[in-house]
Design goal:
The structure is a single chain. Helix 3 runs antiparallel to helix 4. The protein is built from twelve helices and seven strands. The chain is globular and about 60 Å long. It folds into two domains: about 20-130, DNA polymerase, domain 1; about 140-330, Intergrase catalytic core (hpI Integrase, Chain A). The protein is mainly α. It has a three-stranded antiparallel sheet with strand order 2-3-4, with helices on one face. A two-stranded parallel ribbon has the order 1-7. The chain has a two-stranded antiparallel ribbon with strand order 5-6. The protein starts with about 30 loop residues before the first helix and ends in a 26-residue tail after the last helix.
């Protein structure tokens, strides 16, 4: 990490007690290591990328980064808006600055006020909307479209069996891609025609308590997550693989079976490729302003549940959302929603 730069919080103050090393003075190396691990790896990597951009901007503009003055943070956000950066990236940048100020133990009273930075970002968002921009939400598919997508994936190869299972399980579990690729074989349990998944960790589960998730079989072979997952687990078992990553890499070779199943866990971006390939092969087009990607599995599963009339609280619990919040309602995105005025005029 970049060395600390001790800077007076403003020109009128001679108080240089910006950093509070006493907060970490008695921590052992082990404690520091566990604290570092408490931040999800992908989140830290994303924040680190934005923090490096911020440090480069500060160096170019001869601005002290720690602690940064509120006006300088606002200037950085405004400059990124003028450069046409995405809303989500700028939001991530602001969060990264706050995160690393906290990592470096900047006293609370010297943390930058983000009010103006967020106001600039809000104005930027409004200007984009006025010019026709809309948030790029993950497009959803219906159960009939899902069956068409699955039908395009071969069922006679290890890769096809794996991808079928992944697409159906991700949809049925309302899963994030990180949750799906994080599953181990031991996290699956078949019981009474259902499959019970043990979600060890997730973005919403900051305490890493884990949770059990039950998925019922589908009404159609092409939309049956239980049957598809059982077939993949049996494929692994036939090769003597009964532990370790559930969704793993395969490699085509010259063995009698024509492929090898490797020990390496797949990365999350693989699920996005599965979704995109399947909708393309099935001839499904995303509506304006939306794209099909890995998150479409989570959004589609929740949307199907809403359309089927499932209780809102049950949907929130299944997807890992807070039952007291409203975030799960943002995943109700039917692409073929019937108009309330249809047949009225």
């Amino acid at each position: 990490m970049t060395a600390l730069v001790r800077i007076a919080p403003d020109e009128e103050s001679d108080d240089l007690s910006v950093f509070r090393p006493e907060r970490r003075a008695r921590l052992t190396g082990q404690a520091k290591e566990w604290l570092h691990k408490s931040v999800p790896k992908e989140t830290f990597k994303a924040y680190k990328r934005e923090w490096d951009k911020f440090l480069a901007w500060c160096a170019y503009n001869d601005v002290g980064p720690l602690p940064v003055l509120s006006d300088h943070l606002t200037n950085w956000v405004a400059e990124r808006a003028n450069a046409g950066h995405s809303i989500s990236i700028i939001e991530q940048g602001i969060s990264a600055v706050v995160f690393f100020h906290d990592q470096y133990n900047v006293a609370e009273k010297h943390m930058p006020d983000r009010t103006d930075a967020w106001r600039v970002l809000s104005a930027y968002r409004r200007s984009l909307i006025d010019s026709g921009w809309r948030p790029d939400e993950a497009a959803t598919y219906t159960v009939d479209q899902l069956r068409a997508m699955v039908a395009t994936i071969p069922d006679d190869t290890a890769l096809g069996i794996r991808d079928r299972a992944a697409l159906l399980v991700a949809t049925g579990a309302f899963a994030r891609r990180s949750q799906l690729v994080g599953l181990d074989i031991g996290d699956t349990h078949f019981s009474r025609g259902r499959v019970v998944l043990h979600i060890v960790k997730s973005k919403e589960d900051q305490q890493a308590r884990g949770r059990k998730l039950v998925i019922d079989p589908g009404a159609h072979p092409q939309s049956d997550p239980v049957g598809a997952l059982r077939e993949w687990v049996n494929t692994l078992s036939a090769r003597g693989i009964r532990s370790g990553p559930l969704f793993r890499q395969t490699r085509t070779n010259t063995t009698p079976l024509g492929y090898s199943i490797l020990d390496y866990r797949l990365e999350g971006r693989w699920l996005g490729r599965v979704v995109k390939n399947a909708v393309r092969e099935a001839g499904i087009s995303a509506p304006s302003g939306r794209t099909y990607r890995a998150h479409s599995t989570r959004a589609s599963g929740a949307t199907m549940a809403f359309r089927a009339g499932k209780p809102s609280a049950a949907i929130a619990a299944h997807g890992g959302w807070s039952p007291k919040g409203t975030q799960h309602h943002t995943y109700n995105r039917p692409e073929d929603q019937e108009s309330v005025t249809e047949g009225l005029l």
